[in-house]
Automatic annotation (TrEMBL):
<dbReference type="InterPro" id="IPR050375">
    <property type="entry name" value="MFS_TsgA-like"/>
</dbReference>
<feature type="transmembrane region" description="Helical">
    <location>
        <begin position="347"/>
        <end position="370"/>
    </location>
</feature>
<feature type="transmembrane region" description="Helical">
    <location>
        <begin position="260"/>
        <end position="278"/>
    </location>
</feature>
<feature type="transmembrane region" description="Helical">
    <location>
        <begin position="322"/>
        <end position="341"/>
    </location>
</feature>
<feature type="transmembrane region" description="Helical">
    <location>
        <begin position="114"/>
        <end position="131"/>
    </location>
</feature>
<keyword id="KW-0812">Transmembrane</keyword>
<feature type="transmembrane region" description="Helical">
    <location>
        <begin position="382"/>
        <end position="402"/>
    </location>
</feature>
<feature type="transmembrane region" description="Helical">
    <location>
        <begin position="152"/>
        <end position="175"/>
    </location>
</feature>
<protein>
    <submittedName>
        <fullName>L-fucose:H+ symporter permease</fullName>
    </submittedName>
</protein>
<dbReference type="InterPro" id="IPR005275">
    <property type="entry name" value="Lfuc_symporter_FucP"/>
</dbReference>
<keyword id="KW-1003">Cell membrane</keyword>
<keyword id="KW-0472">Membrane</keyword>
<feature type="transmembrane region" description="Helical">
    <location>
        <begin position="206"/>
        <end position="226"/>
    </location>
</feature>
<feature type="transmembrane region" description="Helical">
    <location>
        <begin position="408"/>
        <end position="427"/>
    </location>
</feature>
<dbReference type="InterPro" id="IPR036259">
    <property type="entry name" value="MFS_trans_sf"/>
</dbReference>
<feature type="transmembrane region" description="Helical">
    <location>
        <begin position="61"/>
        <end position="82"/>
    </location>
</feature>
<dbReference type="InterPro" id="IPR011701">
    <property type="entry name" value="MFS"/>
</dbReference>
Length: 434
């Protein structure tokens, strides 16, 4: 009689190690969608807070610094949680912290303080950092290594579903409720009137985040009761007791494929965040109109991103991921430069089309960099999540560029970021089999 505790053989044709991993995979997909909602509901807040608090683009870009800075700070603690306990424990911890952050938007709206909102965003993103650090490698370990990149791309394909929901929520619940008064008009208002307007606007910001908190609670409960085979979820005590962080770090940095993968991920996330964060500003500077009407183009971008994720996953069945990464990164640079040189409706559609290039990048860089890491994968995953710091730093650079030269010229910043990603893609074509 076959031992039921023996793990089935991992064949390249089998998408999952265990049959009931399909249920776990489906539940994890909801997590990929959840952090997509949070990230892209946050992108328009740069413009929103700039108007509500009458501040510069650089100051309002601190929204992204707080959000992606939290990813940088919590990635290593997440790796220790995964190593000491399990990927499931990491997912639950991340969801729990994200729930607290989303709920913190209520007291932030009551206080009407920009710093309180930044703190709430930091807590929310801290939870999502732990969630993402855990969920990505969790998906990769659900089946054979040979199909890990394609399986991760499939899971990540549902992230744009969340991003579209996030932008839709911002476009319907936040942006239309902004008062049309300009900065000059706000400056001349009586303090009581200004406070009343600001309270209404911040209440609109708070509502979708608190609603998201309750959705995350449901996901937390479902994953808590999710059954994972003990052989996949059990911690090797001897391995935990002998964790040598510095030795692990040394092995990771010794691998060019991983080391440069972290750099590429930094600039990939930077390009993505810059492109989406300032789409509204580019459209308004080019075509005019309100924030709500300009946000339509951000929605178009994310629809393209969603469709392209599935298309790219299909193309990976025919082309090496590294080849596709190189081509799309170079195309991203070309589209950014076209938007800078031709600031009209075609330039706007160039900005929108960049999302097709972005669709492939995060999971592909992630899987290439982690390929062959073995027991170092959990900490390697943390390093790649820390690279999301690019989304905190480069929007500040682009924000300062907008304050000085305008939104059109500022798209030189993501153009440079794409070039770094293209270099990593070409390096991977020559030096890896992925």
């Amino acid at each position: 009689m076959k031992n039921q505790n023996t793990a089935p053989e991992k064949s390249l044709s089998a998408p999952f190690v265990y049959p009931n991993m399909k249920i776990a995979f489906i539940l994890l997909i909801t997590c990929f969608a959840a952090w997509g909602v949070a990230a892209n509901m946050t992108d328009p807040l740069v413009k929103v807070f700039s108007k509500i608090f009458t501040m510069s683009t650089f100051e309002s870009a601190l929204v992204q610094f707080a959000y992606y800075g939290a990813y940088f700070c919590l990635a290593i603690p997440a790796a220790f949680i995964n190593a000491r306990y399990s990927y499931k424990a990491g997912v639950l911890t991340g969801l729990g912290l994200a729930i607290l952050g989303a709920l913190a938007f209520y007291p932030a709206s009551v206080s009407m303080t920009y710093g309180f909102f930044l703190a709430a965003l930091f807590i929310l993103a801290a939870g999502l950092s732990i969630l993402e650090t855990s969920a990505n490698p969790f998906v990769m370990t659900m089946g054979p290594e040979g199909s890990a990149a394609r399986r991760l791309n499939l899971a990540q394909a549902f992230n744009p579903v969340g991003t579209n929901i996030g932008v839709f929520l911002a476009a319907t619940l936040i942006l239309p409720n902004l008062n049309t008064a300009s900065a000059e008009e706000r400056a001349s208002m009586a303090p009581e009137m200004l406070l009343s307007i600001r309270a209404d606007e911040l209440n609109s910001v708070m509502t979708p985040y608190v609603g998201m908190a309750f959705v995350l609670m449901i996901i937390w409960v479902l994953i808590y009761f999710m059954r994972i085979p003990k052989s996949e979820n059990k911690v090797n005590v001897d391995e935990v007791q002998t964790i040598d962080f510095m030795a692990t770090l040394g092995r990771l940095l010794a691998r060019k494929q991983y080391r440069w993968g972290v750099v590429a991920q930094f600039f990939n996330v930077a390009a993505q965040t810059c492109t989406w964060t300032f789409t509204i500003q580019y459209v308004q500077e080019t075509l005019g109109g309100t924030e709500a009407s300009a946000s339509d183009y951000l929605q178009y971008s994310l629809i393209i991103f969603l469709i392209s994720r599935f298309v790219m996953t299909w193309l990976m069945g025919f082309f090496r991921p590294a080849v596709l990464l190189s081509i799309l990164a170079l195309l991203g640079t070309a589209l950014c430069l076209y938007a800078v040189m031709v600031p009209d409706i075609s330039g706007v559609w160039a900005i929108v089309s960049i999302s097709a290039c972005l669709s492939l990048m995060f999971p592909t860089i992630y899987s290439i960099a982690l390929d062959g890491l073995g027991s170092d994968t959990k900490f390697g995953s943390a390093g790649l999540v820390m690279a999301i710091l690019g989304g905190a730093v480069m929007p500040l650079v682009q924000g300062a560029t907008i304050d000085e030269f305008g939104a059109i010229i500022s798209y030189v910043v993501p153009a440079v970021c794409f070039l770094v990603v293209a270099a990593y893609g070409m390096f991977s074509v020559k030096n890896t089999t992925v």
